[in-house]
Amino acid sequence: MDHATEMSVQRYLHDWLEHVRTRVRTRTYEGYEGVLRRYVLDRLPTVDLTELKPLDLQHLYSDLLANSHPPLSAGTVLNTHLVLTQAFGQAVRWGLIPSNPASGAQPPRPRRAELVSVDEPLVTKLLAAVAGSSCEVPAALAIGTGLRRSEILGLRWSDIDGDLEVARIRRTLQPTREGLVFERPKTKHSERSVVLGAFVRPYLERQRDDQAHRRERLGDGWHDEGLVIDRGDGAPMHPDTLSSAWSRMIKRSGLPHVRFHDLRHAHATLLLVKGVHPKIVSERLGHSSIGITLDTYSHVLPSMQHEAAQAFDELLDAKT
Question: What single-letter DSSP state applies at residue 175?
């Protein structure tokens, strides 16, 4: 008997999860598993894999949007669609079904959230609000380099050259159900070298001195992992701990609500406004293509267009 006709959709998705468990990062696997467990396995009809139709998935998406409590965002439903597309794409490659049913379903189009505008005066106020706290150095790194939170928390002193001029992004710190784990960056573009600049150097120097004092004070209680950012005793700082502490401090300061991740956007926006080529900004951020950078920061482009037109006018005036 044909193996595919004996396999329910739910059984196949469980088997697919076992297949990808050792092929993707732990956090990615947990994301796949969580999506299928929360939004898919109990909602899809219990039919053979070969009988699943695009309309079944379309009904699933509509049900998720209309009947979930609390209501799901269009972005979450789109992410569910992307996971199912991968899962059933593998079934096609294995010869279990002739075509991918997710290819015929249309997920909702999420509305992109507007980026928070963080200009130079606000950057100064934000750094002043967290001065002397555990958030200060991570914030300075995010603003001065555009590194992701996971990249900042995974950075070791051995990744930074002796003059504190270049940081090599080699790992990220990820929370999983088993605890914190260090993983390689997701893509080859994320593994990169970033010039730090004079802005970041004094923060790193103070951090290195502060760690030396804490290491001496704690003695055997110090966890010697060589991390630039630690939780106080040398061990890794949980990403949620950093974000929560940041949010509390910003709220107490009375400043506009700025997420820690918005500091990365601030770095990119300030560079673009200053006329730095988008290709360089893209490389610093670790984007896989310059197109992602241009699309993400399109709100900056109108002002750059005016500057480009003015520069062209000046060029022609100089020749006439």
Answer: E
Q: What is the DSSP string of 29-90?
A: HHHHHHHIIIIITTTS---BGGG--HHHHHHHHHHHHHH-SSPPPHHHHHHHHHHHHHHHHH
How many other C-beta atoms are found inside a 10 Å radius of the C-beta of residue 258? Answer: 22
Contacts of 278 (CB under 8 A, 6+ apart): 272, 290, 293, 294, 297
Is-contact 267 274, C-beta < 8 A?
Answer: no
Alpha-carbon span 270 to 143, nearest angstrom: 9
Rounded CA-CA distance 175/164 in Å is: 28
Q: List the structure tokens of 193.
A: 């070298």
Q: How far is CA 105 from the centre of its chain?
A: 27
As given in the structure block, the two tokens for residue 95 are 């010869």
pLDDT score for 66: 92
DSSP annotation of 157 reads G
- Kindly report the number of other CB atoms within 10 A of residue 144's CB atom: 20
* Residue 301 to residues 103, 146, 271, Cα–Cα distance (Å): 34, 19, 12
Angle at 292 between CA 35 and CA 285, to 5 degrees: 90
Identify the weakest region by mean pLDDT among 151-155, 184-188, 204-208. Answer: 184-188
Mean pLDDT of the chain: 91
Long-range contacts of range 296-305, CB-CB < 8 Å, 24 or more positions apart? 296/115, 296/265, 296/268, 297/115, 297/265, 297/268, 297/269, 297/272, 299/114, 299/115, 300/269, 300/272, 300/273, 303/273, 304/272, 304/273, 304/275
| CB-based contacts of 17-25 (< 8 A; 24+ apart in sequence) | 19/90, 25/174, 25/183, 25/184, 25/186
| For helices 136-145 and 262-273, angle between their N-to-C axes, nearest 10 degrees | 40
User: What's the whole-number mean pLDDT along residues 179-203?
Assistant: 93
CB 166 within 8 A of CB 153: no
